[in-house]
Amino acid sequence: MNDINLSILKEGITAVTGSNGSGKTTFSKLLTGILTPTKGCVKLNGQLLTSLSLAQIGRQVGYVFQNPEKQLFCETVEEEISFGMHNLGFPLDQVALKTRDIMEYFELTRYSQSFPHNLSAGEKRRLAIAAVIALEPDLLILDEPTTGLDPYRKKLLGDYMERIIASNRGVVIISHDHKFIDRYATRLIRLREGQFTEG
């Protein structure tokens, strides 16, 4: 990343695209505080990310890794979706309702008591996305979210992203899926050799 001055607003769907090795995943990890820039700074709602804990960042920014297995750790699908809400102190009745609704939407209900790592690659991705969406972050960052999803489930994901932005929250997708980007993105950022261009 070199000489970047970029604002990501909590509105619309921002797509970040570029060739392999262009820095897309590095960029997403800088946005979430997983990586710290060697020069310059990253701010979240006016606050330096370096002044916030990962837990504080996680309350505002949700991140789904390119490899969903890295963030699945509970014993069942149902626990995976509800864990973060319990951790953030959501009311128990709200946790139960949201867990049920999100499992239904992402067609995971029949796997509710299954061990997450026994799911298919596409099912794991849907689960990782569902677990982060359940937390209602102000900004949702999805790294290659359509990998392993069939066209029907890509549409489910895209439609849910539109529901998110309708509630005044933002979405960033890191993706090579140009058809999906063309359909859903409201802003396009291209990354090449550590530099951004828009449009």
Protein model, in words:
- By secondary structure, the protein is of the alpha/beta class.
- The protein has one domain (23-42, 52-198): P-loop containing nucleotide triphosphate hydrolases (Rossmann fold, 3-Layer(aba) Sandwich), CATH 3.40.50.
- It is built from seven helices and eight strands.
- It has helices at 24-32, 54-58, 77-87, 92-105, 121-133, 151-166, 178-184, and strands at residues 13-17, 43-44, 47-48, 61-64, 139-143, 170-174, 187-192, 195-198.
- Strands 4-5-6-1-7-8 form a six-stranded mixed sheet, sandwiched between helices. A two-stranded antiparallel ribbon has the order 2-3.
- Strand 5 (139-143), helix 6 and strand 6 (170-174) form a beta-alpha-beta unit.
- Helix 3 (77-87) packs across helix 4 (92-105).
- It starts with 12 loop residues before the first strand and ends with a strand.
- The mean pLDDT is 91.
- Its main location: membrane.
- Residues 1-199 form the ABC transporter domain.
- Pfam families: ABC_tran (PF00005).
- One of its GO terms (cellular component) is ATP-binding cassette (ABC) transporter complex.
Please sum up the structure shown.
The protein is α/β, with parallel strands linked by helices and 199 residues long. Helices cover 38% and strands 17% of the residues.
